[in-house]
Amino acid sequence: xxxxxxxxxxxxxxxxxxxxxxxxxxxxxxxxxxxxxxxxxxxxxxxxxxxxxxxxxxxxxxxxxxxxxxxxxxxxxxxxxxxxxxxxxxxxxxxxxxxxxxxxxxxxxxxxxxxxxxxxxxxxxxxxxxxxxxxxxxxxxxxxxxxxxxxxxxxxxxxxxxxxxxxxxxxxxxxxxxxxxxxxxxxxxxxxxxxxxxxxxxxxxxxxxxxxxxxxxxxxxxxxxxxxxxxxxxxxxxxxxxxxxxxxxxxxxxxxxxxxxxxxxxxxxxxxxxxxxxxxxxxxxxxxxxxxxxxxxxxxxxxxxx
Length: 306
Fold this sequence. Notes:
Blueprint: E1 23-24, E2 37-38, H1 39-61, E3 68-69, E4 75-76, H2 78-94, E5 100-102, H3 103-107, E6 117-125, H4 127-132, E7 138-145, E8 148-156, E9 161-165, E10 169-173, E11 187-188, E12 199-204, H5 210-217, E13 221-227, H6 231-237, E14 243-246, E15 250-251, H7 252-264, E16 268-271, E17 287-288, E18 291-294
């Protein structure tokens, strides 16, 4: 299948506008009435909600998940629906002025958000991993402002790891339902410089394709790993890997939270036109095109995508 054939250039990284302030001003008429949004405060709220929703997710994980297929043939189970119900209820209580687009509500026909500021929710990213009981599934909540993911949380309850991205990025070990430790008790994370021995690449555990294989063949790859869900973004964000390409279809709720964490940690996610991956693509039913997540932006090499 033909995908983008343009060059992935070093100059592409320079197109990323790094947000230097924790407070992001919004235009008048947008949610919050144009008042600034505190990215870190919103990320903290997302984290607390994810930790609460994870209790329901793990209760299903240890019992009958009632797995079934959605109309698009993708898997869904009780954990997706229970977690989403909790997340939507808590977001309505704590951030009532921000519209929300959530995966399971979207699957039932509620795929509408107005304006450029909204929240994306994937209650269980990696349902296949959840059903296979390998632990590599996450709860994803991300804030979009003007097409950019400005705050996000990725929580892997089976691994007891959370990644939080706002103006900066942090991570810690924490079990479902536990109180979130303050930032000072969490580990600050940042992408690493590309190792001279070669890059560590991540690929999807459940969605391999020829385009990804061809793209990775052009890079100086020293090590390759498979991982599920948004854990791949987080591994790049905390300096455990360097590049994650994805040429198969994803939805915006699949990527927003992990993208926010990665950008907060100094990384970048580029689409096939060399631009930072954009969100709010209602005309495309909120589908993403091909993208590559990078840690060290100096490692981006001029070369053709497959």
